[in-house]
Amino acid sequence: MTMRRGVGLAAFDNHQRTAQQYSDLGSSILQTHISELTDQLLTFQAALKKFAQSHADEIRSDPVFRSEFVKMCSAIGVDPLASSSANKKGSFWAELLGSDVNDFFFELAVRIIEICRRTRDVNGGLMLVEDVKGRINSVPGRPPVSQEDIVRAVNTLAPLGHGFGIVRLANKDFIRSVPQELSRDQAVAIEATQALGYISVPILRDNLAWETARCIAVLDDLVASGLVWIDEQARPKEYWTPSWIRQ
Amino acid sequence: MSTLPSPTSTSSRSTSFPFPSIYSFPPFFTRQPNSQTWTSQLSLWNSLILAYCRYNRIWRIDLNTAIEWDLFNNRDINRSLKLETCKEVLDSMVKKGDAEWVSGSGSHVSKNTSAIIYWRRPEEWANIIADWIDSTGQKNTILTLYEIAEGDLSLSQDFRGIDPTILRKALDVLIRRGQAQIMKSADGEEAGVKFFGSQ
User: Left (φ > 0), alpha (ψ -120 to 50) or beta: where does B160 sit?
Assistant: First the structure.
């Protein structure tokens, strides 16, 4: 149908009607698209749910598979650990994925909290992720967890405000389970302990070019925080990181 | 210089005590000033001492001689626990019920230098002895303390060579439970213990 531009009021009328027809057509196309999209989304949801359910065992037992699964979820914009409410099962994705992923990290977080609580007096609330992993995996009958799993679980705890967090020192991941964060000097000093297992006033002074008073202050600080153990039978006194105690 | 304790029982181990990793941590031998760290250190020493005594079948620790043992001296890292710290550790074990001070032996009238180590509590020993009486059919027999600890029938038992003081305490438990009774001879001397077996 060819349309002819008329002139005068009649032409104006025509234009309006045409615009309306276009608008109607646009709406119906949009409507079709929306329903197609909805169909696709529903198909996708079903597929993802089926995938998660049929691979639930692998998600639970294989750290590599689990890691890849979580990465895939992130890539398509899905956070399998996101919770819309305080209830861990409140997450839409937890429902969709059959809550296996959520359960896994929740249970892991609980075990991590327990281990940190039990060792707090020994290490002042700072523990190597590797050591936590060793303890968890030493319990027979449970599938192994990876360092990545632990870091992820701890990061889910961070927003809860109980002082849990991951601290990276000397290229190693530590779990901090007390609210007090390390000061800059404390962090540097603890990093220095990772070379030989201990530091001393001369070691800090010679390697970091700190004056003696600053060295003494930070070492006293670390002792007060329970983050190092003193060896008074060494000359000069040595301050040891409890992370050096082999598990 | 560190020594091994003199054997106190007939069973001798072919391998030496497997020390835990904390034993190789130099600061473990320094009394920690931080009170929380010290709490954990006390607990670790407590466990270590109990395990060491259990392994080597040591029933009591005399501070003045024990301080020379490898338990308190790690030659590999050249670290030793000070006598005062060792005493603090034992004091805490006594408070927990894992040890008990006994009056010093010999001419020294020193207080709190010797302690019985309960790597099994008297109640545990009582149960083990009562089970042994049952399983060896010794109910209603009278046994002397020596026979219990050193007799043929106890050769493979955990209480073999048990310190007499600890045995006494275990028997006291059984007497309180009504499972044993002290038998006296005609002249009023203690002759032995009669067991009624577990109820």
Answer: beta
